[in-house]
Amino acid sequence: MPAPRVASLLPSATEMVCALGCEEQLVGVSHECDWPESVVGTAVLTSSKVMQSPSSGTIDRDIRNVLKDALAVYDIDEAGLARAKPDVIVTQDLCDVCAVSFEEVVEAAKKLTNPDVNIVNLRPMKLADIWDDIRKVGAALRRDLAAEAVLTKMDARVAAVRERAAALDTRPNVLTIEWVDPPMLGGTWMPELVEIAGGRALVTKPGDHAPTVTREQLEALDPAPDVVVIKPCGFPLSRTIDEADTLNDLLAGLPWPALRDGAVWVADGNAYFNRPGPRIVDSLEILAACMHPEAFADFAEQYEGAFRRFGVRT
């Protein structure tokens, strides 16, 4: 039986497919799939209705306007999907702002000449869901053993971080920021990553959606954060740094130990943290380096260029 042809419509799924050793089976990807770098050049099957903007506030307003008009944020190239002739389509219904809507994928699949196309739907809210999704993709590609091998390595790395963090004397209060304007806080699997890395997550619990907050709510946080990690969804590190003025307006003057101690970090939220796939463990290691710089100096060196301190102007 020939190996199944795969169309992956979100970056984390593409990373799963490749981690399972099935990159050669990819016949189409989303416009945001960029890792591993070798997938660049694969047929692109989606596009965005929202034009790129230098401002997180403008992006947020544009997306809200599109959704207000009951439109999808992303388009799927139905003709391209038909040419790709996938046996498996991997998509999600977690967030219509993150990828093409599940309903559109289902409708597009109905028009394919292959009536038996397998739509694999991912909806991770916690770390265990990410592990289950890797198994789900492995099953669809007939790579169950490869999936377990990937997960065994991920488990070992997670356990190593947990063990090292548990031996530390400090357990900081940690706030993760998912978007800058308006400010949104990290939910879903982020509180679990904070706990494993030896901290206490503020505001959200595992599985929570990212809440939008005000400057006043941030000022009133009790306890206040000892560490802040800012990793906007979809923004590489350079884009987040471009938001320096907005970040300063948001954070300057807040009565937080994190500001007093210089423990505010910005990180690549595009490659890490917001991609619920194999590199979520890389995200954990980066987070550990932000929370405990001295204890996890090896990770700081390993991921140099993926995160940096952010000096808030006073």
> What's the structural domain tally?
2
Number of helices: 13
CATH architecture of the largest domain: 3-Layer(aba) Sandwich
Through-space gap between termini = 65 Å
**What would you call the quaternary organization?**
single chain
CATH class value of the largest domain: Alpha Beta
CATH superfamily membership of the largest domain? Nitrogenase molybdenum iron protein domain
Biggest sheet: strands, sense, closure? 6 strands, mixed
Q: Kindly report the average pLDDT value.
A: 91
Q: Rg, please?
A: 20 Å
Any overview of this molecule?
- With 314 residues, this protein is α/β, with parallel strands linked by helices.
- The chain has two domains: 6-123, Rossmann fold; 169-309, Rossmann fold (3-Layer(aba) Sandwich).
- Helices cover 39% and strands 14% of the residues.
- It is built from 13 helices and twelve strands.
- The chain has helices at residues 11-19, 56-68, 78-84, 102-110, 127-140, 144-166, 190-196, 215-219, 237-242, 244-251, 257-260, 280-291, 297-302, and strands at residues 6-8, 26-28, 46-48, 74-76, 88-92, 118-122, 173-179, 184-185, 200-201, 227-230, 264-267, 307-309.
- Strands 7, 8, 9, 10, 11 and 12 form a six-stranded mixed β-sheet that branches. The protein has a four-stranded parallel β-sheet with strand order 2-1-5-6, sandwiched between helices. A two-stranded antiparallel sheet has the order 3-4.
- Strand 7 and strand 8 form a beta hairpin.
- Helix 5 (127-140) packs antiparallel against helix 6 (144-166) and helix 6 (144-166) packs parallel to helix 12 (280-291).
- The protein is globular, with a radius of gyration of 20 Å.
- The termini are far apart.
- Mean pLDDT is 91; it is low at 66-71.
